[in-house]
Amino acid sequence: MKFPNFTLTPLLICFVLGVICSVQFEVKSPFPSTHLLFFSLLGLLIAWIAKKYTFIFVPALLCIISFFIGISRANQSSQVDKDHFMTKHQVENPNQLQITITDRLRSTPTHHRYYADVIALNDEKTSGRLLIRMRKEDSLELDLDFTLKTSNALKPIQASKNIGGFNYKNYLLSIGISHQLDLNDFIELKRKHFSLMGWLRIVKQQKLDAIESSAFKEETKQLLMALILGERNELDRAWMDRYAQAGIVHVLAISGLHMGLLMVLSGWCFKPLRFLPKGNYLQVFMIIISLWCYAFLTGANASVIRAATMFSLFSIGTYLKRSPPTLYLLLLSSGVLIYSNPQYIEQLGFQMSYLAVFGILILQPILVKLLPIKNRLLHRFWVMTTVTLAAQIAVSPLAIYHFHQFPGLFLITNWVVLPFVALYLYLGIGSLILLHWQLLPKGLIDILDLMTAGLNNVVLWAVNQEVFFFEELRLSVHEVFLTYAILLFLCFGCVKSKRRTLLILFFGVLLLQWEAHKSRVTNEATTAVWLMPAYNNTVLFYKNKKTLRVFSSEGMARNNRLVVEFQNEFSIDTVAIEGLKNSYILEGKTLFFIDSLWAENFDFKKQKNLLVLTKNTKVNLEAILLKNEIDQIIADGSSYPNIKNRWKKTCRQFDIPFYDTQKEGPYLLSTKTRNIGF
Q1: Pairing state of beta strands 177-182 and 129-135?
Q2: Are residues 519 and 532 in the same domain?
Q3: Which domain holds residue 291?
Q4: pTM above the 0.90 mark?
């Protein structure tokens, strides 16, 4: 049987779709992997017997198999590994944890934060990761690869409390972290065995310390740590925001730009190896080793692994003079990475990294043909421009969905910065090598300080052009998919694709447009009332179509985080801030707010009531529950936790439901448009 001429592209797409169905929609595989293998072999046997229909049957069967392999692989990865520390965790007894610090995160005003590997629990070898928090007054910052032993209790990561807010819990789950540890009592341990990752973390810490103790200006130190070692948390938060507004924050993320420049530098450094027998293979091997050591040195996040995989495959083809199809390499690398860790597909860095590269490979050839230029220098400038445009077009819908902003001057800032970054990277790497030997000349320090100042001046200029920075942009999930479907339709139309492909894409665009329209209509028509989890304040949100009325006991600004994040979820045109009353009528029930000024002899109405306890009120809750019919007791963020715990015990005695907005999130009071007394 001659196997049909069938590329890997549909198989990879079906595999990724299977992973997405499992991760996003929790679809379970209908049969175990052994049964899947059996049915696959049976199907291929039938195809071999029915040779007449092989050309149609085999591709369809392979696509179905790939889809279910994706589902099965994602199901398998979602299961807790038998060596994971939570399988050995004892709930009722204290646990001894041995952990190693792997990453330093940006500190909060009160805490240092880290990611850590759990290497043992109760002296049993384990796997898994944790989020670590330490109060700043308790200790100095911990170094990378610092290993310790502690008996502090584990806590599950809490979900986002705000409507439309960033779901930090889901993000941590996507990188394999489900628990956190508030560290305040520990014993330092020494490593017993050599670990390559541990050695790389020690090297990284040494380089960070060398930069910190050098004679560079503070801005240069922070930029070198971010640009070369991937420590963006060391960069001042205000400068991070400015880089984002200028449209060049991507240069601070270790990605394809850094890996490409490192591949060129490694190729030049290892060029003498080509004179040895089998030197071509030895040179490629050393380049790949350099790329992956740098990837793990800088943290090995999803975008770095993508770039290292891509450039490893690309260097094999380039230096062995076997030029591979780049788009297939990109598809293959995505399939390999998603198979190795299906949770990658949920990580924003992974999504934006691949979107940018797909945009460059698919859109850039179309854009560059729009303006044929014969002059060699101008043509190179136009190519660089189209690369930037293609990447920005590809990532913009997703970036607007998550960050709600668009830098209008991204093209100008990239014209200036991209040629500059290569020189800065090479000089920065050279300065790190010279720092190791304490041979860094003052001239190189002055050059890097001057380049940092120049880069920051360009960023400040772009940020000051506020009219070109667009904020409060919002797209729904359906609108994001619709935008990408339209882009695909236009791309296929420009390359003169088959009529059948264009027709499928056209109807796909129409379907997505209809879904986006329905979603927007439903969103705008939503009318509801929520009690929000505001800290030290009592806040009620009343959304009526495209108007949001905010009732607050302590006042609230329109740019308050609760209001801004709420507008990420719902389409709002008007925001009105009002004072909070003592009571409201909701669907035939009365909502009472009981604060510190509560009058004990207040006469409740006979109908059932909802009580919101606020501001550490000293009301006699037992007396109220004895005398009145109460449906629900709600505590907001304006009271102390110990007082709320006392209220909760009282409610349990009277079998009354208790709800704490600080722990459980906003409380939905009503979803009806009538019988609301506002």
Answers
A1: parallel
A2: no
A3: 201-348+417-471
A4: no
